[in-house]
Amino acid sequence: MEERKIRVLIAKPGLDGHDRGAKIIAQALRDAGMEVIYTGLRQSPEMIAEAALQEDVDVVGLSILSGAHLALVPRVIELLRANGQDHVRVFVGGIIPEEDVPVLKAAGVTEVYGPGTSTREVAEAIRQAVLGEEVH
Amino acid sequence: MRKSTDSDLVERVLAGERLALARLLTQVENDTPTGREALERLFPFTGRAHLVGITGAPGTGKSSLANRLAMAYRKLENREPPRVAVLAVDPTSPFSGGALLGDRLRMKDVSGDPGVFIRSMASRGAVGGLARTTAAMAQVLDAAGFEIVLIETVGAGQSEVEVARLAHTVIVVDAPGLGDDIQAIKAGILEIADILVVNKADLPGAENTLRNLRAMLDLAFPEERDDLWRPPLVRAVASTGEGVHEIIQAIQAHKDYLVKTGSWVKREEARLMGEFESLLQAALLARWREEVGEETYQNTLFQLTRRQISPWQAVRRLLEGDSMISE
Predict the structure, then answer these.
(1) A31 — contact with chain B (CB < 8 Å)?
(2) Residue B97 and residue A4: Cβ atoms within 8 Å?
(3) Domain B12-binding spans what residues (chain A) (predicted)?
(4) Given an 8 Å threshold on Cβ–Cβ distance, is B122 in contact with A32?
């Protein structure tokens, strides 16, 4: 059997058109040996959850710069759970005010990353989150 | 947690459950024991789907075309719209082993339709335009009741013709402006085309591309013959949907031709025999390796790499059980 490949969906929910961050992280995770499904701009939470289901991903990475994270992120997580994908880890990157981070984590987000985060750190956190839980 | 549901994955897939399908596809893609056992149980339900390959050079618009085709199939009016699955293969990086799978980017229009299922897969080191398990994944989708399975290859050049072995119908997508380099592509990939599409036909140079391809077809098919399939040449603009209905008609016409001439059955037979032979080879090899014993095997390899015996001698020794070489 082949080595376990981590599958990640990178999506940009909402209406802001800045996908540079999403592309950089997608490329960095590819370089870290993961299979990255890139879905691009202007995705509704429904589209993201459906893509995550069809692709059977381990991780969903959401890039949000519009300020709508408190509306969009919990909705994505709710839909993932409704689809039976409780095991999928959700990471958020972008411009997220500090006081919103605990709110997102309470909603089920594994980690939130702001500008200046090293991509290596993100890749390592994803690897830990996915492979760490499979040991037991 | 995920393990407990593995046992009834097959039944859930046959009942049309999408999450179970997604998970089973992962098992099959990773060639796990669960995946292999499921394939065996699903076999009686396979053989019904029309497998349609979509191949062509990078950037010709294969994904956009797959998106449009799926959309158009779902809106067919004169019959019950078929359920459509898309398997989209993108290359794995030879350096990191990772992959960026971007085909979904062009398939947003069908993403909410429960009659459509899109799965991206990485080539994982296989050459030929597909991944090693693409054929098996197509079988799962077939068993799950998708009547049309579109198989999009990695951006292909001259030798990525593996899809011709798997698909019943192969669409080769070309686009204007690829220059004279296209001549090189023609020799390899055009030979497997059942349908030729010139996409982005609204761009300058489209007429040239069409003329070149038509001339090539005229050379290959100098006379009208009923018993030979001459690939239709379709001009299309995937971004607007132009030409998509002609492609769907051509796909159906090709299927009718395959069925009428008995080639459909022959292709299925050839595919099954190929699959059987590679399974047999793998099984025989595994069994023989067990019989021969690791130590004997390693000793022979050692003598071979020291050039004490030739590769032919090494094989003879292992197969015929000659006593080990005395030094």
Answers:
(1) yes
(2) no
(3) 5-133
(4) no
In a domain, A49, yes or no: yes
Cβ atoms of residues B52 and B149 within 8 Å = yes
* CA atoms of B116 and B104, how far apart (whole Å): 13
Give the tokens for residue A91.
């990471």
C-alpha span between B232 and B212 (Å, rounded) = 14
User: Tokens for B243?
Assistant: 């030409």
Q: Is residue A69 part of a domain?
A: yes
Query: Searching chain A, which residue's CA lies closest to the CA of residue B36?
Result: A1
Provide the residue count of chain B. 327
ipTM of the complex: 0.91
Measuring CA to CA, which residue among B83, B13, B5 is closest to residue B41?
B13
Q: Which domain holds residue A101?
A: 7-131
Domain count, chain A: 1
How far, in Å, CA of B135 to CA of B51, rounded? 10
In A, which residues are within 8 Å of B122 by CB distance? 5, 35
- Looking at the domain assignment, is residue A2 inside a domain? no
B25 interfaces chain A, CB cutoff of 8 Å: yes
pLDDT in tens for each of the 327 residues of chain B? 444 455 589 999 999 999 999 999 999 999 999 999 999 999 999 999 999 999 988 889 999 999 999 999 999 888 889 999 999 999 998 889 999 998 888 887 787 888 999 999 999 988 778 888 999 999 999 999 999 999 999 887 666 778 888 999 999 999 987 765 555 455 667 788 999 999 999 999 899 888 888 888 888 888 877 778 999 999 999 999 999 999 999 999 999 999 999 999 998 898 889 888 888 988 898 888 888 888 989 999 999 999 999 999 999 988 886 555 444
Closest residue of chain A to B23, computed from CA coordinates: A56
Q: Does B93 touch chain A (CB under 8 A)?
A: yes
- Residue B295 to residues B30, B299, B301, B318, B324, Cα–Cα distance (Å): 30, 6, 10, 11, 11
A110: domain CATH number is 3.40.50.280
Query: CB of B120 within 8 Å of any CB in chain A?
Result: yes
Contact B149, B49 (CB under 8 A): yes
Start-to-end C-alpha separation, chain B? 56
